[in-house]
């Protein structure tokens, strides 16, 4: 396996990070959860390297913005992914879903690890984040318009920039970590996906303490298009709710 040097900390983390460093929830023995997988795919990004100590700035993550008219979680930003089909492994499901949603050829992705399975109690859903490197890049596109509104190539440098870190407020008053992404930094990344990114980057030592920036953490309310069909109690808003709810 040949991976770029800037990914080395992520590769190591995939074998050392524990579920307790990502969430306080673990499925009980009698839960019989519905199992899903998401593809957390990293890719090289040209033009962002400022020096040998700036390795995290070499990469980007591929995220999808859900169709704004979906009945569940409209407009929510997430990793490609979905439920495991009978007989599938988490890796097989994550790669299949990425192909079906954004036309990402599985042959171009080098899977190098998995994060611990994360349990979302409201939906009894157990999600395995599969880690991959987009080694042989070609084009991706919206292969499933019914599911995907936009594909976002998000620089890790932008995710680490305190100017793009926010707290997201649900109408119930729940607060969780979030990021501003997109060309104009006006798309809110929140919930389950934001939680994975925030906690993994903190574990890697990449993240700044955004809550201690001048003025503290900025709070943003969810836009109206993300609230269609969302229960007022965020504990019922699974699967894409924060890991610490």
From TrEMBL:
Every Nudix hydrolase domain range: 33-181
Query: GO terms for molecular function, please?
Result: coenzyme A diphosphatase activity; metal ion binding
Q: Tell me which UniProt keywords the record has, alphabetically.
A: Hydrolase, Magnesium, Manganese, Metal-binding
On the tree of life, the source organism's domain of life is: Bacteria
Disordered: where is this region? 217-245
Record field: compositional bias (Polar residues): 230-239
PROSITE patterns, sorted: NUDIX, NUDIX_BOX
According to its UniProt entry, this protein's organism is: Nocardioides exalbidus
Q: Which SUPFAM superfamilies match?
A: Nudix
Query: Does 4Fe-4S show up as a keyword for this record?
Result: no
User: Which cofactors does the annotated protein need, by name?
Assistant: Mg(2+); Mn(2+)
Q: What is this protein called?
A: NUDIX domain-containing protein
Q: Does the keyword Transcription apply?
A: no
